[in-house]
Amino acid sequence: MTRWLTALFTAIIALAGCSNSEQSWHGKDISGLMPELSFALTGTNGETVTPADSAGDVRLLYFGFTSCPDVCPDTLAKLRQAINRLPESDRDDITVLFVSVDPNRDTPERLASYVNFFGDHITGLTGAEPKLRELSKRYRTTFGYDEPDARGNYNVSHSSAVYAFDRRGRARLLLRSDLSADQLSEDLTQLAKEDAPS
Amino acid sequence: MPGTDYLLPYDFSPLTVLSFLLVLGLYGMALLRLPKNEQPGPGRVVTFVLGVLLCYGVMQTRFDYYSQYMFFVHRGQHLILHHLGPFLIALSNPLPIFRFWYRILRLADKSWLRPVGWLYRLLQQPVIAAVLFVGLIYFWLWPAIHFDAMLSRDLYWLMNWSMLLDGLLFWWLMFDPRSPVNTTALGYGKRMLMLALVALPQMILGASIVFSRGMVYDVYEVCGRAWPMAPETDQLLGGLLTWIPPAMMSILGILILLRRAMHEDGQEKGNAVKQQALAGGNAS
């Protein structure tokens, strides 16, 4: 009941457009709307990866697949640019988590060569479909497969936005695909400043 | 996916399942214990159960999954929660069931329930009920609110439950079986006027979604669709579902009320003729 009241209150505040936070973001502020970062998926070396492996970093969660024609490479390239524009000290504090939702085609090897193309701050992850479903459900997103064509190629629908988590693993921003690398960079700088190890 | 999985909830909510079980249980118990002449007929029971099951179906089966990731399915979900389900429930006239539990639980004696009664009477003021009915649709379809509601699990449940409860209140006010002649129930003219008035803003909203060129509800783009579908098609279908069926249900509601009003008119005239005849008979 209290949870619902809080939710109602959040809704009213959001409608009034008077979020009392002093920060302004280019991405969409999703503080309090989603649960904190949690997953256990397979990395590109076949090892299990959890948020503990990147604890203390600003984490950027993105769902995609390596055969993705445009959205995924665009987004990942933009994230690489945005990270490269950060001060050097901040760059190592950003981890991009690229979760492939197409485990049938994206073997760890294929995923490894794909993510390596997009810089050093990115981790390729995947898992069995039920695990991926569980994670996508947790972040209120989903994915679906089209019918394969004659060559066996198929399209995959997936979230087009990047979920940004702060150093404490709290869901903070939803970065839509229409943001520029500069805007992403500004948001990441601001996020990296919070709780920064001094 | 095996067929039975489609009947299982996507996002299991114990509170929701319990509420529906409670409603069906209370209905069934009252049905068995009511004296024969007060029992609703089979048609009314089926209508009631159908309305309840429809609402349950869109909340706690695989349908809910598609509602979360397809705009037009979401509009279909709200069409059932806010319109069709409560429409059937109210039309089935569960008044004898209410009366039965009212007597058994001696609700009239419970003073702590009095604020609930006040709130109920306040919400059922015609102007407030109509504004609430349309206002909730606009509120949850306000793009910024809609975005948050689809991202937050709590807000999502709040949205669906608020639509269902408001739907029940509104359609019960429309189809209250008590005659306005000898009870405090709302007059038929006012009811029909309300049904016509709430249809207009819904048609405007639906049409504006259908004819908008940009993407009004991009949360489905951001969060991924249940299957790859052109966003414009999804939005178009969703707009149509907001526009046409609710308007049709208003008309259907007006026709039902019109029929009831004409029926009662006929009865009154018949009574008046009888009384006149009796009076004349006495005079001679």
Task: State the main characteristics.
heterodimer; A: 198 residues; alpha+beta; six-stranded mixed β-sheet; 6 helices; B: 284 residues; mainly alpha
Between the first and last Cα atoms of chain B, what is the distance in angstroms?
A: 82 Å
Give me the Rg of chain A, rounded: 17 Å
Determine the most extensive contact between two protein chains: A-B, 34 and 31 residues
Which term fits the overall shape of chain A? globular
Can you describe this structure?
The complex is a heterodimer of chains A (198) and B (284). With 198 residues, chain A is α+β, with helices and mostly antiparallel strands. Chain A contains six helices and ten strands. Chain B is mostly helical. Chain B is 76% helix and 0% strand. Chain B has twelve helices and no strands. Chain B has helices at residues 14-33, 42-60, 63-69, 71-91, 95-104, 114-123, 126-141, 143-151, 153-175, 188-211, 219-223, 231-283. In chain B, helix 2 packs antiparallel against helix 4 (71-91) and helix 7 runs parallel beside helix 10 (188-211). Chain B starts with 13 loop residues before the first helix and ends with a helix. The chains are: A alpha+beta (198), B mainly alpha (284). The A-B interface holds A 3-4, 6-8, 10-11, 14-15, 17, 28, 30, 32-34, 63, 136-137, 140-146, 155-161, 174, 176 and B 10-11, 65, 68-69, 139, 142, 144-145, 147-158, 218, 221-229.
